[in-house]
Amino acid sequence: METKGQYPHRRWNPLRQAWVMVSPHRTQRPWQGEVGQKATPSGAAYDPECYLCPGNKRAGGAVNPSYDSIFSFVNDYAALLPDLPAAVTPSTSPLLVAEPARGLCKVLCFHPNHSLTLARMTQPEVRCVVDAWTSEYEALAAIDWIEYVQIFENRGAMMGASNPHPHGQIWSTGFVPDEPAAETKAQREFFDRAGRCLLCTYLATERASGERIVMENDHFAVLVPWWAVWPFEVLVLSKRHLSALPELTGVERDALADVLMRLTTRYDNLFETSFPYTMGFHQSPTDGEGKSGTVHPEWHFHAHFYPPLLRSATVRKFMVGFEMLGMPQRDITPESAAERLRACSENHFWPRD
User: Fold this and answer.
1) In this structure, are strands 329-330 and 18-22 parallel, antiparallel, or unpaired?
2) In this predicted structure, what is the pLDDT of residue 258?
3) Integer Cα distance of 38 and 275 in angstroms
4) CATH value at residue 256
C-alpha cells in the first residue's frame, strides 16, 4: 500500500504485538490547543539551588560530593524500596490481586555542569555516561533478586523532569516490567518460529529501504520505526546482535556515545529548542535465565526515544481520548519524520561555551 499518502491506515508493531493508527491528513487541521513555552539551554554552569549540582544539599538532606564527572546515588524519594514486608494482606476476591513490588532506584548525574545536556556534551563525556550506565547495570544485575534494570532519562519539564541538571535514572526491579516483558514475548516467539532475531531482521529491512533511517555509524543505526507512535520517535539499534550494555566492546561504546550525541543535537536543531524526550534502553532481563550464565538469545539491545513535540517548539502531542481509550494514533508519517530529522544539522544551534 502507499505509505506516504494522506490516508489513514494501521501499522503493526511486531516488537509490542500491537497496532498503531496513522492519520497524516490530520496535519492540515488548525491548532487551537495548548501552546507551551519554548525551552532554551540553561546558561548557568552551577546553580546554588539545584539539588544535583556538586557540593549542594539534596532535598533529602544528603550533601553531594564535589564530583567532576559522573555521580550516582540511591534516589532520596524512590518509587521502589529494596526491603519490604514479607507479604501483602490477601484479598477475598480473585479480582483484587496485589503483591510486594521490590526494587532499587538510583539517580545518575551525567556531568557537573548544570547547563549541559547530552546534545551539548562532548563525545568523550557522553562515553563516560555510557561506561557509567554499563557499570550500574552490571552491579545491579548481580543482585540475586533483581530481574530487570531499566535505564532511562526524562529530558525537559514537558516530560516530567523535575530538575534540568543533566541526569537520568536507573530503576532495578524484582520483576520484569510490562513493556520489556511484552518485548521479551514478541522477540522469543519470533526467534522460536523463524530461528533468527526479530530486530536483526527488522534492521536489515530498514537499511535496505533507507526511507526511515535517520543516521548511522559502523555499529549503530538510528531510525524512525515503521510503527512509531510519538511524532519524532526513534529507535536506536545495535548492528551486532547483543543483548545488553556489558556486551558492547570499547569501540561500540564509543559508537553509542556518538549516535546519542548526534541524535540529540538533531532533535534540538529541529525546532531550535532544548528538545524534550523520554529515552530508555531495553535490554536482556536479569531474571533467573539471565543469571544462569546464558543470555536471552532472543534479546536485541536497543533504545527508544519518545519526544512529544509535534509542530513546533511549543506544540506537543497529547496521548488522550482515542489514544487512551482505543489505540495509539499519530498524525505525521514515520517517513516524513525521518526525512525532517535527516535534514537537521549536527552542529548545535546553541554552541557550547
Assistant:
1) parallel
2) 98
3) 9
4) 3.30.428.10
What b/e readout covers 51-72, taking b as 16+ CB neighbours within 10 angstroms?
A: bbbbebebeeeeebeeeeebbb
Integer Cα distance of 98 and 15 in angstroms: 28
Cell numbers describing residue 7: 490516508
CA neighbor of 349 nearest in space, from 283, 268, 279, 248? 268
350 belongs to a structural domain: no
Q: Which residues of 229-265 are buried (b: 16+ CB within 10 A; e: fewer)?
A: bbbbbbbbbbbeebbbbebbeeebbbbbbbbbbbbbb
Q: Is residue 3 part of a domain?
A: no
3-state helix, strand, coil in the chain (%, to 5): 30, 20, 50
Look at the chain and report how many structural domains it folds into: 1
By DSSP bridging, strand 103-109 and strand 71-74 are antiparallel
In this prediction, residue 32 carries a pLDDT of 46
pTM reported for the whole predicted model: 0.94
pLDDT of residue 122: 96
Residue 53 included in any domain: yes
Beta-strand pair 277-282/148-155: antiparallel
Among candidate residues 111, 114, 165, 167, the one labeled active-site is 167
In a domain, 243, yes or no: yes
CB atoms within 10 A of CB 324: 10
Do residues 129 and 110 make contact, with C-beta atoms less than 8 angstroms apart?
yes
Domain range for 140: 14-24+32-342
Identify the CA nearest to 261 among candidates 220, 225, 233, 231.
Answer: 220
| pLDDT tens-digit readout, 8-51 | 999 999 999 999 999 986 655 554 455 566 666 667 899 999 99
User: What residue ranges of the chain have pLDDT lower than 70?
Assistant: 1-5, 25-42, 289-294, 352-353
Total number of residues shown for the chain:
353
Sequence-ordered list of residues with C-beta below 8 angstroms from that of 213, at least 6 positions apart, any chain: 206, 207, 221, 222, 223, 338, 342
> Contact at 8 Å (CB) between 300 and 197?
yes
What is the predicted pLDDT for the residue at 87? 72
Is 304 designated active site?
no
